[in-house]
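User: What would this chain look like folded?
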Amino acid sequence: MKLSQLQCFVALAELGSFTEAAYAVGLTQSAVSHALAALENEVGVTLLERNRKGVAALTDAGQKIIPHVRELLAQAEAIEQEAKSARGLAKGKLRLGGILSFSPDLLAGVLARFQKKYPDIEVVLFEGTIQEINDWITCSIIDVGFVLHPAKDVESTYITTDELCVLVPSRHRLHAQTEVSPQELCEEGFIMAKDGCSSQLMELAGLELKQFKPLTRYHANDSATLLAMVREGLGITLLPRMMLPKKLEGVVALPLNPPQMLQIGLAVRSQEIASPAAVLFVQTVLAWMQEVGEIS
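Assistant: Here's the prediction, encoded as C-alpha cells.
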C-alpha cells in the first residue's frame, strides 16, 4: 500500500472524475486508474463504484475506510512538514476551511498576509457552512477552519467577536427600530441557512424557548440567497454582521436586545497533531488581527 494510491483514492472520491483526480494528484488518468486497482487488490475489496463517466460512489467498504485514509494522509503531510521545519523550511500544503460568504475582507486579508510570509506553502481553500467546516476538520478533510468558538469535537482558538443581527425587509413593521427583543420576533417566519448552526443562532437570539418554537418557513444555502428572500418579504433571518455586504439594499440589519455576540475561532482537530502549516496559519491570523485592532 503506497501513499500515492491512497491519494488517488481520496481524489477520486472527492472529485468523482478520473480526469480531475489525475490533475489534482499530478498523474495521468491511466496511472490513477492503476493506482486505484492496485489499492483495491491490496485491501481485497472494491472501494469505488465506477460508471462510464468515472466514479459513481463510494462502496460501503470505501465509506468506512476513507476517514482512516484521510487521517493517514494528513499525518503523512504533517510528518513531511515537521521534517522540513526542522531544516528551517516552511513548505507543504494547507487545506483551509472558510465559511460561505463570511467576512470576505477578513479572509482575503489573512490569506494575503500568509502568502506573503510563507510563499512556499500552498493553500487549498474549501468553502462550506459552519457545520460542514466542523465536520471537515473532524474527518481530516481540512487542516484548519473558521468556526464558532468554542466548537464541538475540535480544538479552537479565539480570534475575534461578531454581532448577531436580525435582518428584516425595509418595509417591515420593525425596520425603524434601533434594536429588537426576542419577544418582538415571536410571530415572525424565519428563513435560515441549511446547516446545523441555525438552531444555535436561534438559541443565542433567545428564540428557542420552551413555550415558543420559531417558525422556519424556508432554508437557503448562502447569505446572498437569504438576503434576497428577506428583501422580497418571505421572512426574516439571523446572520452574523460579518456575513453582511457593505451595502444593504431593501434590507435592514437590527441589533438584538440584549446584544448577542458570537465568538469566531480557528479550529484544528487537535493542537498536538496539527500540521506546522496549520499552526503557522493560526499564528499569522492572530498577529494580523492584533494589527488591525480586532482583538486585544
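DSSP finds nine helices and eleven strands in the chain. If you want, I can go into more detail on any region.
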